[in-house]
Every structure is written in C-alpha cells, then in structure tokens.
Amino acid sequence: MRGLMQDWPLLCSKVIDHAANEHPLREVVSRSVEGPMHRTNYREVRGRALKIAQLLEREGYGLGDRIATMAWNTWRHLECWYGIMGIGAIYHTLNPRLFPEQLAWIMNDAEDKLVFVDLTFLPLIEALAPKVASLKKVIVLTDAQHMPETKLPNAVAYEEWLKGADGDFAWKEFDENTAAGMCYTSGTTGNPKGVVYSHRSNVLHSMIAQAPDAMNISSSSRMLPIVPLFHANGWGIALTTPMTGATLVMPGPKMDGASVYQLLTEERVTCTAAVPTVWLMLLQHLEAHGGELPDLERVIIGGSACPRRVIEAFQNRYGAQVVHAWGMTEMSPLGTLCAIKPEYAGLTGDDLLAVEETQGFPPFGVEMKVTDDENRTLPRDGKTFGRLKVRGPAVAKAYYKDQGAELFDDERWFDTGDVAHIDQHGYMKITDRAKDVIKSGGEWISSIEIENVAVGHPDVAEAAVIGLSHPKWDERPLLVCVKREGREPTKEDVLGFLNGKIAKWWMPDDVVFVDEIPHTAAGKIRKTALRDEFRDYVLPTA
Ligand code: AMP
Fold first, then answer.
1. Residue having the nearest C-alpha atom to atom 23 of ligand 1
2. CA dihedral of 56, 59, 61, 67, whole degrees rounded to 10
3. Is the peptide bond before 477 cis (omega within 30 degrees of 0)?
4. Rounded to an integer, what distance in angstroms lies between the CA atom of residue 162 and that of residue 156?
5. How does DSSP classify residue 523?
6. Do β-strands 443-445 and 438-440 pair in parallel, antiparallel, or remain unpaired?
7. Please, are residues 433 and 407 in contact by the beta-carbon 8 Å criterion?
8. Which of 108, 160, 400, 455 has CB 3.0 to 4.6 Å from 194, enough for a Cys bridge?
9. Number of neighbours of residue 92 by Cβ within 10 angstroms
10. Nearest to 301, CA basis, from 327, 272, 274
C-alpha cells in the first residue's frame, strides 16, 4: 500500500515562497558593492527573483541551462539564485579567487550561457568572455548610475534589465531531482570537478542544517554568512535562512575585522559562519581596538580546522558559543557540527575544549564511518584513524561528466579523502587529508594536530606541517611557521611549546620560518605548493 499524502515536490522556489508568505517583512540587510548599506525583505527578494525568472525565460533560457554568478554575498546575488532556480536553470557559482585559466576551464566545462557579475569582478569577466564560447550575455549587478564603460558587446546593468519585467510570473514546476546548482571543487590534483546539487538535496540540506544541534537557526535569529555563496554552496545558508525566516545580514565585499565587527554589532547579529581566517582577523581587530560582542550567540567555524585559541577567545572572552563544523562541497556542504551531547555536558576547561576541537557529529541525513584501506570499518574509539566515508540525500553520487568515479563505491559511500577518527559518542576528528598524512616508520602522524598545537604559541601566526623524506623513517614532519608581527620566536621556543602536547615521535624534525604560507582559492593551506617549495630541503636528522 502506498501512503496517501500529497505530492509536494521539494523545489527551492517553495523556500522563498515560504519566506515571503510567512516572514514577508523580515529584513535582508547587505553591505552593497557600491558602498552603502542596503535593506530589503523576503517579500521584495521574492518579487525581484520572479522578475529575473520572467526575463530569463523570455530571453530563451530554461531547464538545465547553466547560469553563472561571480558575486559577493548581497541581496542581489540571493535574488539571482532564486530567479535562476525558479525556471529550472542552474546557478553556477564562480570563485573569483581562482586563476583566470582555471575559471575559463570551469566555465567551458559547465558551458555557462550567462553570467551575473559584481562590479568588482567585471574586469575578470571581460578577460574571460572571449575564451568562453557558450557565454551569450553579461549582467552587471549594479544600477545605471554605477554601470562602468565596458567593451563587452552584450552587457547590461542589472537594475536596468529588471525594469523590463513586471514579475507577473509563476515558478516553473518540475521533478525535485532536477539540478538546481553547481559548484566546482578546487581539486589540488587534476581538473576541478563539478558538483551538481538538486532541488531536493538543497531543500533537504536546509531542513537538516537548521536543527538545534546543527546551525540552530530560527525566525528570531539574525544570521551573518561571511562564507561567500561561491564557497561550497555557501554552506547552504542562502536556503536555510529564508526557510527559517531568520534575518539575513550579508557582508558584500568587506570581510576584514573592522567591517565584520561593525556588522556584528550594528546589525545585532546572533549567529554567523566563516572559515577560521576570518575569525582570526576579527579577534586581532578586537585585541587591537577593543570592543564587545553582546548579541552574538553562536559562531559556526569550518572549512579548515579551528584552532583552540579561537574557540577559547570567543567562549571565554566574548561569551559566544563556537560550533566547529566540517563539510565539503560534495556534501552541500554540511557533514558534522560540534554541539554538546548530554554525554559531554558536565565537561569544563581543557576537557570541554578538547571535545569542541573535534568536528562534532552528523545531523540526521548524514551517515558516516571510518575504514581502513581494505574498506573494513574501524572502531569508534577516538583514536584509530582511517578514511572517512559518508552518504546521505545531500551527498554527491557522481561528479558532472563523471570525473572521479572511483570516489563512490557500490553501496553509495563517498570517500571524502579526509582521514579521521570517531569516538564512542560519535564525535569525529579530522586528522588529515589522505594525501597529507605523514607516514613515519609505518605509522601515521597527523599534520593537522601538530599545526593546531603550534598556532597556540603566542608568537606564531600560522603553521603548516608537511612530511619530508627521511632515510630511516620514510617520512618525518617539518613545521613551517609564519611569525606574528613584531615577534621573534625561535625553533627551540616552538619545539619547547610542543613538548608534552603531542606524542614524542610526532615532534617535528625541524622548524622553519617563512613570510607566507601558500593558500588555495578557498583559503586552505596549499600543501602541494609547500611540498614543492621544500622538495630539496634536507632535515637535520636525515
Ligand atoms: P571544500 O569542498 O573546498 O569545502 O573542502 C572540503 C575539505 O575541507 C574537507 O574535505 C576537509 O579536508 C576540509 N575541512 C572542512 N572543514 C574542516 C574542519 N572543520 N576541520 C578540518 N578540515 C576541514
């Protein structure tokens, strides 16, 4: 017997309809690219998204077309996502921090037909457009007054373009498994891989993400996503926030400490999300200029491992709870978040911090296990680490055009490429990327764990650990550090600081200081580049 419930396809248009119907006047506040703050609400966002959909359809775009965006987090970018999805076309977020050659490759692979671009990135699109044969039109996210001269033949100012529609349009209906969005992962080897989200996966992911043990967002929240929409599906926040009716505050192009502080306080933000680098900048700003964060309740931190000193500063000094989260582009992107279960409720001090340094446990909708190289499931003992595998309704089952098929097995488990352990209460801790683990004497050393301890040193700004070849042990760790401004730590200082905090045999064989550690376009440490840089370096122990 089949259930007798209605067919109500999980389409993303339903999310903005819900926000506009049930929370119509809830504000969407943005720092505009032109400069001033801009205020609108869900009813207006929906109204303008309908105009976008109407115009796109009139101009011949439709189901399955890839429509790119290269834009900061603003109300206009949000409208574009819903307008594009509303006709069954696919928003394709472009990361402007990638190299132009990579962007051209990605746009050609996706066959983008149109791009919505912020003023900031117009020069980049001007350079790319001649290299992307599929690209027919460029819409610049600004008004006539701010529209610059451009040599692009088919470019219009967004606000002018919108005047051509009245918004009398109904969202298109289609199967919920239809593609809604697309985001390429910045793979460190080979070509980038396209991840394709569906309407169903986006809607389910948003329902999963808002739960109390996940992002914990409600209509009373005031959410500031600093993570850009072009990183890993914007952590799903462009859907989760309207779904809950929370106020949405967006940073536009400014993510420095002073600008973030201004938004947090003036807009009374209760919940915010970004990578650790953003929080280090904010904390440095607060250290230098003073200030309090009276409204901030929760800081969601992910993308790379969150150093203990960041957790400590937010919780002990500013009274905001840190939620350490892990995920990936392929997971829409949430995988685990670190809420405190009753099993750990009594912990305080360093014991609590040790739990909060883990990436937490998965919400309903993410299954997770750790296996050895022969795919045997490893015990949940908090120390045995292996390959982290996941599955769920918002986890990729293939890449666009099927590159990297080997990452998905017959039982639909996706090999994340991360190495982790899980403890008895289900808390997962990432110890490395599979390709970054250091193999010393047949045992694995976690580079991330050493890095996390090293950045706790008051004179160290950033740390990265790589494995260098060693005649006896196969590989041994080299610690690469950036000094804090005005400080002069020595190798002995740093090693002394690590002593007793990590296993003896994990102690780096050497410490070197550099001016800068290379980063990927998503702000993660680029270990491949670092390994290249130190390829000929000989460890003193070798
Ligand atoms: P991306 O798809 O670009 O978001 O990258 C996903 C990868 O970032 C994951 O596979 C992890 O290696 C890393 N990552 C994300 N969040 C964390 C975290 N909280 N701690 C450590 N690594 C993380």
1. 304
2. -60
3. no
4. 10
5. S
6. antiparallel
7. no
8. 400
9. 28
10. 274
N- to C-terminal Cα distance for the chain?
70
**How far apart (Å, rounded) are the C-alpha atoms in residues 434 and 447?**
11
Q: Which of 524, 476, 3, 16 is nearest to 242 (CA)?
A: 16
Q: What is the pTM of this model?
A: 0.92
Structural domains present in the chain: 8-217 (3.40.50.12780), 342-433 (2.30.38.10), 438-533 (3.30.300.30)
> What pLDDT is recorded for position 189?
59
Q: Are the C-beta atoms of 260 and 281 separated by less than 8 Å?
A: yes
- Quote the pLDDT of residue 406: 78
Rg (C-alpha) for the chain, rounded Å, is 23
Pocket test for ligand 1, best of 299, 524, 526 (most atoms within 8 A of CB): 524
Atom of ligand 1 nearest to the CA of 324: 19
CA 308 / ligand 1 centre spacing (Å): 17
What atom of ligand 1 comes closest to residue 430's alpha carbon?
21
Using CA atoms, how far apart are residues 171 and 54, in angstroms rounded to an integer?
A: 9
Query: Cα separation of 503 and 521, whole Å?
Result: 33
Q: Return d(Cα 426, Cα 362) in angstroms, integer.
A: 8
Tell me the pLDDT tens digit for each residue of 109-168. Answer: 999 999 999 999 999 999 999 999 999 999 999 999 999 999 999 999 999 999 999 999
What number of other Cβ atoms are within 10 A of residue 190's Cβ?
8
Q: What is the pLDDT of residues 496-530, one digit of tens each?
A: 999 999 989 999 999 999 999 999 887 889 998 99
Q: Which residues of the chain have pLDDT under 50?
A: none
Query: Distances in Å between the alpha carbon of 85 and those of 13, 49, 62, 80, 202?
Result: 7, 9, 10, 8, 11
**pLDDT tens sequence across 273-291:** 999 989 999 999 999 999 9
* Centre of ligand 1 from the C-alpha of residue 429, in Å: 11
pLDDT of residue 433: 86
Contact partners, residue 140, CB within 8 Å, separation at least 6: 117, 118, 119, 122, 147, 148, 150, 155, 156, 157, 158
Neighbours of 422 (CB within 10 A): 26
Closest ligand 1 atom, CA of 325?
Answer: 19
What pLDDT does 472 receive? 87
Residues facing 252 on adjacent strands: 73
Among 430, 436, 446, residue to substitute to test ligand 1 (most atoms within 8 Å of Cβ): 430
Pocket of ligand 1 (CB under 6 A): 185, 232, 302-305, 324-329, 333, 359, 416-418, 430, 433, 522
Which residues carry out catalysis?
185, 330, 439, 444
Q: Which of 93, 418, 525, 527 to mutate to test the pocket of ligand 1 (most atoms within 8 A of CB)?
A: 418
